[in-house]
Design brief:
Chain lengths: 439, 439, 439
């Protein structure tokens, strides 16, 4: 990564949020804390209690909405904004700045039933059905239209909402290896992408060294997406597929960005990248909205070095960088979900401060009582009472309010996601990345 | 598990076997020994030699028949009972009580060719063809009819056979993850099952917390069996699928039980559960015939704690509990099939006695010379001579004949297979079960 | 393996190469060194430089052509021999003996597009597309015809070429588990193969012990290729499938051998077996051309014992035995590709000499700058300068020129690939082979 100097916090452009009254202050380089919240999972009469507790804890930001398409639009074109109006109002009137997520990571079941061609297809040719998330083909024109439709509706409703301080586009684009899809439209788009990139098939054959193993292609149509076969595909084909897939995803994010930039001009926006995501270039994603953001689940990495590296990588990607999700205790999705001892969360908060992150949102406010992440810790436990790190978090927020971020280090590291894609095609050492090497 | 008190051995109800003359005695709480035998794998003139040797060794029970459908019915409706008549006669006249297995775990090739729709379908949509065992869909109406047909024929033939002391229904129902099937009839039956369980789709969406990740279902038809997808399915969907699958398998066992109860009223019956089976609730299966039975392959478990736990679990499931298959030496199906040293088999026998098991059958009498389990130890080696533990077994049977089972411990452990299914959907620690935790 | 005595080096039959003038000498039992070379990957004006350097290093043999079908025949029936004429001329006039490979391991893309039915099918029913190598069904009649066509054309062109000293048929037949294919023609051929082998279905059922698990087959048509199913298939079915698959591959090699024997009578020929190949019997393959050859990648084995065993196995398979490919440094295809320290390559060369190998070809002359094996070491690095072991190799070639091979050891080991196939179907200890046992 290159450590960039950032003369001004991008958020300062956004007058109300950055300089306004209330609990959100405009001082440059002060880290703000926040949390991810799912009002759709809790009774409405709980919302105000939660909001007050968040503010009491020292939180200033709350991200909502990113998985709630089915709640916003229970059936086609029949939008239900009432609950979201009330959620934003409740949270912002308590003094919190709302980060509003577009829900395109979880298109609802009714939409998938209506247009099954949206479904992502795995490398073995099998569709990847709804029931989890990111089950969409990044090339699908129909899904592009549907995304534009829901985002346009959201922006029309909340584009000038004073409670909203920033937008998040999609959620963890590329996560779960969802960028690459093997459907027919992707095959066709890949053919066109190759033709645009290489011009002539002779030029591609030359660039890919197709003489070896007789993979010389007679035409662009004969280059098939890399389905599993006898042994390894050409690393050039694999790399081209990664580049193409990233382009398709980025293009989807840009389509949303255009709508938000036009309809919500006072709001910065971002798309949070999964911590350790190997699909998208953080700089390119951060460039869309001018705000870098990432997840940070240190226990999901190979250790502290990789965890810090990821923060630094995103910190360098844009003038303003947020941790959009940070683990607040035990997580649920690793092979062994270890205990998080006393003092650990405070240490993670200080590390993010030391890296110069502008905001730090915990995932999540309260542990869910149903659904896929119900074993994931929240600041509140399932029963709604403070979890084990709650007071530690309060104390550390206070401590960091007085801290001045350290100067950015002057060391520079060269990092290129295309290198990482190449490493992935021939690893040499299991788990090797730029940031972590298991020797 | 709850340790239940069992005022009376269920077998005592069955007059001849429990109280009759000959080698099978009615004394309550004395552990009987036996063995699994495949007369169809050996020449008929060997059977009497084997039977005499079994009795000489101190065995009282012999299980036969559970994989012999093709031998009982070589072509449709053309039954060949002669060999089985002679086998039962030979064994029982030597003084052994025959446990007769219904052969529904291995429908013959001709039946699968005639009705390929019986075939189980894996989660990736591929049929699981014949050639091994348990390759049948638990929902298949055709297979239900065929099962009823063969069991009815067996019960007509042997329902009042004095040589038969108990029946085994099917074999290891659920083993090899065979309870869950992804075929179209299973999809339809699952839809109906969900509707019966939840009544309305709103009730299901509420119970499953479908708001999270926008998995709100518009109707029961839109809930598809959990095929592999981008990332995790809702744990509620996964749990519902396990419950449904167990219901389908249990319903098949009950259909057989009804025929046996009606046609063989003097015989107790059971369905042996694979040791470590995660598909079916042992109490529910034991409840069908009033007799619990399980396999016990200690080297296939995580160690002595899990091995003992499984015995205790089955011991508590019914007034009478049998080890229907117990390893007698090296097994063939684990990743590393370790040597079984001197004294090991005796120790396992004593452990089963200490747990209060009513019967203990070794698997198997003689190591097979062909087929899938040919590397599995028997009491006799492949060449028909006693294997390494033979005399140790004789000695230990003698020793345990004089032993009084210890009192059941008064400790109680809460165990619920639905907990186990939930753990399976999000393990947290590889290999974790109620009975074994690899930390 | 049986250590055979070999009264005469097979190569002596081939007058020019074995006894002729120039750099290739006829002395019996002197190990010759050589290298694998891909002229199609480098500019023509580099060839002479490379050839001179090879000779300067002490190399006498150079293998070329085995992956160059697309270069030899860019479109159907439009052969381009010019480059190959010039490559052979350049190499042989420098004093090197050319080993010419038939390119049937890598049929070109245009051929696969024209005849997709040639494609190999995996056990899950999915075709294994072009893009890597060995993506062909060994049973395919169309592919047999195409193989015969290209080999005939090559033999017509180079059958009496004085620069060619030996032929290699195909490349690593069976490697990447490519011998077994699950396509419809393979199914039909398997049925016929079984009928030829067993005569009657009763005889097969008896030999396979089909009584167990009710796998009694009503007819040969009902025996399906062993697709993945619930649990293990009969080891007899698995073994039959391996035998059948080997027969299909061998038959393809023989079809090529016949053409070479007729059209290039002065040339010995061989088909190199992948080091550690579990698909084909080395003796049977060596028997085709009277010359055994194998790959040797010691770091791809479980260690020195297995590495030496493989040399000895091939050494014993024919009067003359070559290492057709030997690693010259770090390889690219294992999970962890370890550093190759100073002296390691020299040791491997001495080990091969001690085993009595007649020739030893390094893989490869120069590290590729594109394609699947671009991270594989060559004697020259990617930029065309000597790699780290270059001078060590020169020194060791000199040292071994004066060495007399040790007498063949008199110990005999019984080795049978059908045993290995049986072990594969039930391993008992992960990684177990005849030559390596991880305990």
């Amino acid at each position: 990564m290159w450590y960039v100097s950032y003369p001004e916090c991008g958020l300062r452009k956004h007058a109300r949020w950055a300089t306004g009254a209330g609990s959100i202050h405009g001082s440059l380089r002060r880290m703000r804390f926040g949390v991810c919240y799912y009002p759709e999972q809790w009774p409405e009469d709980r919302w105000a209690i939660d909001a007050a507790a968040m503010v009491d804890l020292g939180l200033e930001l709350v991200r909502i909405g990113e998985f709630a398409w089915a709640k916003m639009e229970p059936t086609r074109d029949s939008f239900d904004w009432g609950w979201l109006d009330r959620a934003i109002e409740t949270l912002s009137s308590a003094g919190l700045g709302v980060v509003l997520g577009t829900p395109t990571a979880t298109p609802p079941v009714w939409l998938m039933r209506e247009h099954p061609e949206i479904m992502s297809v795995a490398s073995d040719g099998r569709p990847r059905p709804y029931g989890s998330r990111r089950h969409t083909c990044p090339t699908s024109e129909r899904f592009r239209e549907e995304s534009v439709r829901i985002v346009t509706a959201m922006v029309e409703r909340y584009g000038d909402d004073e409670g909203v301080v920033a937008w998040q586009i999609d959620n963890e684009p590329g996560n779960h290896d969802s960028a690459r899809c093997w459907c027919d439209p992707c095959q066709n788009a890949f053919t066109e992408w190759l033709e645009r990139r290489y011009g002539t098939i002779a030029s591609l054959n030359d660039a890919w060294g197709a003489e070896f193993w007789s993979t010389t292609y007679p035409d662009f149509e004969s280059i098939v997406l890399p389905k599993p076969t006898v042994t390894s595909h050409s690393p050039s084909l694999l790399l081209a597929h990664r580049r193409f897939a990233a382009d398709q995803v980025i293009s989807g994010l840009e389509a949303q960005a255009e709508i938000i930039a036009a309809g919500a001009p006072a709001h910065p926006f971002t798309s949070n990248l999964y911590f350790g995501d190997r699909e998208l270039n953080p700089r390119r994603v951060a460039g869309i909205g001018g705000l870098a953001s990432c997840d940070a689940y240190p226990q999901g990495t190979s250790g502290p070095i990789e965890a810090r590296f990821n923060l630094a990588l995103h910190r360098s990607a844009a003038p303003t960088a947020w941790v959009m999700e940070h683990q607040a205790g035990r997580i649920n999705w690793t092979e062994r979900n270890a205990h998080v001892g006393e003092g650990q969360v405070a240490q993670w908060m200080r590390e993010a401060a030391a890296e110069g992150m502008d905001a730090f949102l915990f995932f999540r406010w309260r542990a869910g009582r149903s659904g896929q992440e119900q074993y994931h810790t929240g600041l509140l436990d399932h029963h709604g009472e403070p979890g084990p790190s709650y007071e530690e978090i309060r104390k550390t927020i206070g401590e960091l309010a007085d801290a001045t971020p350290t100067d950015a280090p002057r060391a520079a590291l060269l990092w290129d996601i295309e290198d990482l894609w190449s490493i992935d095609s021939e690893v040499h050492a299991p788990g090797a990345t730029h940031s972590a090497l298991t020797l």
